[in-house]
Amino acid sequence: MTQKDPAKLDRIVAEARQAADRREQGYREQALKIYPWICGRCAREFTPANVRELTVHHRDHNHHNNPPDGSNWELLCLYCHDNEHQKQLELAAGGGDSGKRGDVATHSPFADLKAMLAGKQKDAK
After folding, report:
1. What is the dihedral of CA 82, 88, 89, 95, to 10 degrees?
2. pTM of the entire predicted model
3. How sure is the predictor about 53, in pLDDT bands with cuts at 50, 70 and 90?
């Protein structure tokens, strides 16, 4: 029977986290050089003082897909990034707005506005 190293799992997890941090730091730095420091959703502008609040969002949600041209990235503020991932979770759960319109209103309240205004102008004369 082999001896189990209780710290082995801790080491593996720590190494995986370090590798992910290094990978993220690489594409984040690259994205910050490529794109203007503006949130792609709310258009909030960032400066060196608050750029830590600007995150890199993977458009296809695959954190391993990091093309050097940045075509899979967009910069989002913390709040918009969280919102984007929440929408993705809701879609995966079968809820949320899929971007499709449901029932569309068929009534047009201003359809005869021109005729109504013309009629009021006649009455006023």
Report:
1. 130
2. 0.57
3. very high
How many domains does the chain divide into?
Answer: 1
76 vs 28: CA distance, rounded Å: 12
In a domain, 77, yes or no: yes
Residues 6+ apart with CB under 8 A from 80: 39, 40, 41, 42
Look-up: residue for tokens 């940045």? 70
Range(s) of the domain holding residue 54: 8-97
Give, rounded to a whole angstrom, the gap between the first and last alpha carbons of the chain: 105
- Please give the Cα distance from 75 to 94 (Å, whole number): 27
- The alpha carbon torsion through 9, 10, 11, 15 (nearest 10 deg) reads 100
Kindly tell me if the per-residue pLDDT of 9 is higher than 90.
no
- Whether 117 and 124 have beta carbons less than 8 Å apart is answered as no
Contact between residue 57 and residue 84 where contact means Cβ atoms under 8 Å apart: yes
